[in-house]
Amino acid sequence: MEDTQRSAGASLDQKQQTNYQSQLDHKRWTLADPAPEDILKPLEEKLGIGRTLTSVLIHRGIDTFEKAREFFRPGENYLHDPFAMDHMDIAIRRLLKARDNGERILVYGDYDVDGTNGTAMLYTYLTSIGCKVSYFIPDRIKDGYGLSISGIDKAMDRGVSLLLSIDCGVTATEQVEYANRHDVDCIICDHHEPGDILPDAYAILNPIKPGCNYPFKYLSGCGVGFKLVQGLARTLGHEEKAYEYLDYVALASAADIVPLEGENRVLVKMGLDLINNNPRPGIKAIIESANLKTGRINTGQIVFVIAPRINAVGRLGDARRAVELLACEDFSQACEFAKIVESENYNRRKIDEVTFGQAMQIAEAYIEDTGDLLPLILHQDDWHPGVIGIVASRLVEKYYRPTILMTTVDGVAKGSARSIAGFDIYQALKQVEDFILQFGGHKYAAGLSVEIERLDEFRKAFNKVASEYLTEEILTPEIKIDSLLTFDEITPKFVRILDMFAPFGPENLNPTFYSNSMHIVGSPRIVGKNHLLMKVRQKDIMLDAIGFNLGHLLPEVGKRGREIQMVYTIHQNEWNNVIYTQLRIKDIKDQ
Which residue in 132, 136, 135 sits closest to 104, CA to CA? Predict the structure, then answer.
């Protein structure tokens, strides 16, 4: 099998630019090492799922029968004790005191899918147990991200004495101090990286804060909020009621691209079961408006279809409309909200395309002028702040390099940063924080603001940091292959068991397979927007295959009978109510 992997640690120079496009077109194929036979053989005998799939499990750290049982049958028994999270008991006592005393509580969320779902979840649950609760979602442009002084002022205008943040707040030291001075207690539910100093909040629920011994560290913001709901429900003697809110957690966790392993995988699996079997009115409305069907909703559809719609109303306007939809209890009213969401998503896509086109022109001019492989840091005064995160992600996909896209808001350059595997963009920003007004985020995604006059300084400093970490190997897209596979192994039983590996996401990706000595049957063609559709045959078995956004490979595979090798995933596709097996092409090379 051909492998275009470069040596680790190779430094970058201008000459390597000539190989840039070939690096993107010819990805590194990295095959997993064989599973240890002393683990593989006994586990295969116990599970009865075949050698290939047992090997895939072992590579995911599932190397005992007990771990496999949890993996294939995730359920509430595998959820961690919510009171293992630091400050959980403090937060619950304060919330119940507020309920019993008739205090006004404000749920303060964020405008993305994680934040709006977390807000809807906390609002609906707290309302159900008799709390006087309202919610607030900041305006992306007027208020900016996270807790703000203006947002706290709005809370005080409502007579709020307890503010409960969700998916934000762990770095809001000044804002929490302001709230404290005005007798507003703050409980923070967050999952973002804390700063060097924690806010002086009444309670902080965050599994990654220093001193928190909660055993699972990678919850979404909504997931942290769910642990609060779970703790409250247990305290009130109806813990099973908490599980009714896991549909929100499934949407948030899938959309926020958190690792789908451990507790996250259990939460998302249980939440998807709710979405597919008994969706609440708001979620059912958005599913139907997107022309999807309940019963087969998966994480991929959440990420690529449902989440962009929920995000759209916050990107172009007031994200409270997303909470109204998600929390709506009347289906006909939810359908009206869903129409607004659909319209906003349509408008968002138009702005997205224009911005992407402009950003590509600037990016390609930069690449041509500099000839280097450093990050893309692009700024335009009039780009819509609601779409720069999406466009930054698309630029990463196209050019495969860390990307920061910025626009001007109130005289300040504000933007979104997106990264690639092997480059922690949050830590890179932390190393140049002297040039940044504010930043926050994760390993692969962050938000930031920079003074306009310091943009060039920031760019130089960030590029210097990046150049120390970015090697040619990191900047060559890699496809990790779980196992070799022959077509005669792809039986109905094999596909049925493979479906049980879901839900898929980071750290539990849909298994990727490699097959060789295949022949192209008939004439491959382009369908939809640049998707490659064809049939492939290995020996006497023929299967359908599609490569999304791989239309540029048509000249290479256009010859009938050509022998190829392929990397792919396996899916159950549905067309005209007929379900059939289809290969999703990740890359193709000549045999």
Answer: 132
DSSP code, position 549: T
Query: What residue type is 62 in one-letter code?
Result: I
Residues 155 and 136 sit within 8 Å (Cβ to Cβ) = yes
The length of the chain, given as a count of residues: 591
Strand order in 445-451's β-sheet?
Answer: 376-379, 403-409, 412-418, 445-451, 438-441
**DSSP reduced 3-state for 570:** strand
User: Given the DSSP bridges, would you call strands 412-418 and 445-451 parallel, antiparallel or unpaired?
Assistant: antiparallel
H or E segment at 258?
A: none
3-class state of residue 481 by DSSP: strand
Tell me the two tokens of residue 36: 């240890």
Omega cis (within 30) before 503? yes
Cβ(27)–Cβ(478) under 8 Å? yes
* Alpha-carbon dihedral sign for residues 317, 323, 326, 331: negative
Per DSSP, 582 falls in state: E
Helix (H) or strand (E) holding 576: none
Predicted confidence at residue 9, as pLDDT, reads 32
- 515 closest CA partner among 573, 572, 580, 583: 583
Q: What is the pLDDT of residue 26?
A: 64
Query: What is residue 558's predicted lDDT score, i.e. its pLDDT?
Result: 74
pLDDT at 345: 92
Strand partners for 544:
535, 582
Segments of the chain with pLDDT less than 50:
1-24
Per-residue pLDDT, 459: 94
Cα–Cα distance for residue pair 155/46, rounded to 1 Å: 58
Structure tokens given for 415: 């933007």
> Do residues 9 and 471 lie in contact, with contact meaning Cβ atoms separated by under 8 Å?
yes
Cβ atoms of 30 and 480 within 8 Å: the answer is: yes
Condensed to tens digits (0 to 9), the pLDDT of residues 185-197 reads 999 999 998 989 9
**Two structure tokens written together for 430:** 């932390």
Q: Which residue has the tokens 């305006």?
A: 139
Full set of structural domains in the chain with CATH: 77-344 (3.90.1640.30), 372-469 (3.10.310.30)
For residue 493, give the nearest of 116, 47, 105 by alpha carbon: 47
Pairing status of strand 478-481 against strand 28-31: parallel
Q: Is the dihedral of CA 64, 65, 70, 71 positive or negative?
A: positive
CA distances from 352 to 220, 347, 387, 510 (A): 26, 9, 6, 28
3-state helix, strand, coil in the chain (%, to 5): 45, 20, 35
Instruction: Report CA-CA distances (Å) from 246 to 108, 270, 541, 581.
Output: 20, 7, 41, 30
> Can you give the pLDDT at residue 371?
67
In 192-250, DSSP assigns E strands to: 203-205
CA gap 283, 338 in Å, rounded = 9
CA distances, 361 to each of 138, 356, 464 (Å): 33, 9, 24
Q: Which among 160, 211, 166 is positioned nearest to 189, based on CA atoms?
A: 166
Place of tokens 């559809």: 301
Dihedral over alpha carbons 43, 48, 51, 56 (to 10 degrees): -70
8 Å CB contact between 214 and 80: yes
Half-sphere exposure of 436 (CA within 13 A, CB side): 24
How many CB atoms neighbour CB 16 within 10 A? 17
pLDDT digits (tens, 9 = 90+) for 537-552: 999 999 999 999 899 8
